[in-house]
Structure formats: structure tokens, C-alpha cells
UniProtKB/TrEMBL annotation:
It comes from the Bacteria. The keyword Signal does not apply. GO terms for molecular function: DNA-binding transcription factor activity; sequence-specific DNA binding. InterPro entries: LysR-type_TF_proteobact-type (IPR058163), LysR_HTH_N (IPR000847), LysR_subst-bd (IPR005119), WH-like_DNA-bd_sf (IPR036388), WH_DNA-bd_sf (IPR036390). Coiled coil: none annotated. This is LysR family transcriptional regulator. The lineage of its organism: Bacteria, Pseudomonadati, Pseudomonadota, Betaproteobacteria, Burkholderiales. Gene3D superfamilies: 3.40.190.290, Winged helix-like DNA-binding domain superfamily/Winged helix DNA-binding domain. One of its GO terms (biological process) is DNA-templated transcription.
Length: 299
């Protein structure tokens, strides 16, 4: 039994899929299946129960999985135990980031992290959908907004203040709203995971209480880049973090409206899986992302 075989088994068990495990490990599916089969033969027990539709741990597999995952984490620690100071960390990291934060904050600073740890390989996912950290094999994810993953460890970094903006062309055609009542004559660009007009609204705080005013819209998008582009094109007003809008406001391509009726700030959080020992490379990434993002969020 070797560590590479254990890593293959653990990844298959975490993802409940030989196919997804092979994709993430960069291996042929047959090689992954053979490795698990040899492991089971050597142990003399079935670790995974396979059907045409699912792969799940057997009772023996659940017991073995816990010990194997712990052994791999300890092996990661041992690998760096006698490395000279400053020699850097080794291994692969996979992180999921909101597109705007990746583009504007994290990736521009990434060279300094890799300069300190040139042996690391980093995979960066930038998507607006909520990835499944465990099933999709991410070491950590950075999220903006309310959290629903109760089984993950959460490191709160702060909040992003939001701002209401519209293009000069939109305001020229529709006028500048001065109150909630004026919004009856206006439209928003609607951001939604599933494309549909339902749910378009104006979010605001009334004496500290979050409220929503239903709004009309003509355009629905499911990505932040498209959301910003639609606003720049004059298709409606949007509510978005000031962090991404400041450069447009400074350039005059977007104008702020109803500053006293902004949407509540959005929490920013780093999430990672519950582990007794978090690998050093993951801890290093968590601390570095915290250092990069924290100056740009409100506490």
C-alpha cells in the first residue's frame, strides 16, 4: 500500500465518482479503478459499493476512509518537516473565487505567493455558481453573500458595502430617481441563477431592517460580468459591491443613485472542509488570501 494509492481512493470516496476523481487527478479512469481494486484486494475487503449509478463507501470503507485521510494529512506535514526555512511548500491547491475578486485582487498578487512557494501548483476556478467544495475537490472557496454550507469551516473576512449605479445614458432617458416612489418609473438589470423575470427587486435598509421593493426589468443575467456590462449598456440600474464599481464611478461611465437606499453589505468568507489537521499548503493559501482581501472589506 502506498500513499499515491491512498490518495486515489480518498478522492474517489470524496467525489463518489471514479470519473470525476480521474479528471481531477489527471489520470485515466481505468487506472483509477485498477488502483482501488488492488487496494481492496490487498486489504481483503470491499471499500466501495459500486452500482451503475453510484459509488459509495461500504461500512469497512467508511472506517478505512477516516484513517486514510488522516494518514495523508500527516504525510503532508511530514513532507515539509525538515525542509529548510524559505524553501517553500509543495503540492497542488484548488481554490474557487468570485470572478471579480479573482480578477481585481487575488490574481494580480498571485506572483508574490508563488515566489514564496514555487513548488506549488494552483488551480483557480472563477464561477458565479456555488461549487460543492468537497465533491468537486476544492481546498478552499471564497464566497460573497449569505452562507448555507453548515458542514464547512468558515473564516469571516468582513463585508463589502454595496452601491446603486446606472449609466449616464440610462439616466438621461429615464431620469434620476430621488426616492423609493420614483423607482416605479425605472427598471433594474436582474441577477438570477436561473434566468427568469421573477424576483427582480430593489434591496435597501429601512432603519437597519433589510427590505425589498419589487421592480420591473427587461434583462436577466446569471453572471457578474454580464450584470456590469448590461448596466454600462444602459439596460437598467444595478446594485453591486462598491469594490467593483469604484473604477466606473471614477471614470464617469456609471453614476451613483439613491446613496441612502443602498442594499445591505455582503459578507465575504473563506470556507474549507472540517479537518483535524489542515495541510500546511492550504493554511498558507488561507492566510495569504485573507491578507490580500481583508484591506478591501469593512469589518
Amino acid at each position: 500500500m502506498d500513499l499515491d494509492t491512498l490518495r486515489i481512493f480518498v478522492r474517489v470516496a470524496e467525489l463518489s465518482s471514479f470519473t470525476r476523481a480521474a479528471e481531477q487527478l489527471g489520470m485515466a479512469k481505468g487506472r483509477v479503478s485498477d488502483a482501488v481494486t488492488r487496494l481492496e484486494a490487498g486489504l481483503g475487503t470491499r471499500l466501495l459499493q459500486r452500482t451503475t449509478r453510484s459509488v459509495r463507501l461500504s461500512p469497512d470503507g467508511e472506517q478505512f476512509m477516516a484513517r486514510a485521510a488522516e494518514l495523508l494529512r500527516e504525510a503532508d506535514e511530514l513532507q515539509t518537516l525538515f525542509q529548510p526555512a524559505g524553501s517553500g511548500l509543495r503540492g497542488r491547491l484548488r481554490i474557487d473565487l468570485p470572478n471579480g475578486l479573482a480578477r481585481d485582487l487575488v490574481i494580480p498578487r498571485l506572483p508574490e505567493f508563488l515566489a514564496a512557494h514555487p513548488q506549488l501548483e494552483i488551480g483557480i476556478s472563477t464561477t458565479d455558481r456555488r461549487v460543492d467544495l468537497v465533491r468537486e475537490g476544492f481546498d478552499c472557496v471564497l464566497r460573497i453573500g449569505a452562507l448555507v454550507d453548515s458542514d464547512l469551516v468558515v473564516r469571516r473576512l468582513g463585508e463589502l458595502p454595496q452601491v446603486n449605479v446606472a449609466s449616464p445614458d440610462y439616466l438621461k432617458r429615464h431620469g434620476t430617481p430621488r426616492s423609493l416612489a420614483d423607482l416605479a418609473a425605472h427598471r433594474v438589470v436582474h441577477y438570477a441563477d436561473k434566468l427568469g423575470l421573477q424576483g427582480a427587486a430593489w434591496d435597501y435598509l429601512d432603519k437597519g431592517v433589510a427590505k425589498r421593493l419589487p421592480m420591473r426589468c427587461n434583462v436577466v443575467v446569471n453572471g457578474t460580468d454580464a450584470y456590469h456590462a448590461a448596466c454600462l449598456a444602459g439596460l437598467g440600474m444595478i446594485q453591486a459591491p462598491m469594490l467593483g464599481m469604484q473604477r466606473h464611478i471614477d471614470a464617469g461611465t456609471l453614476l451613483q443613485v439613491l446613496p441612502k437606499l443602498a442594499a445591505p453589505p455582503l459578507p465575504v468568507s473563506l470556507l474549507y472542509a472540517h479537518r483535524r489537521h489542515v495541510p500546511l499548503r492550504v493554511r498558507a493559501m488561507l492566510d495569504w488570501v485573507t491578507q490580500v482581501v481583508s484591506p478591501h472589506v469593512a469589518r
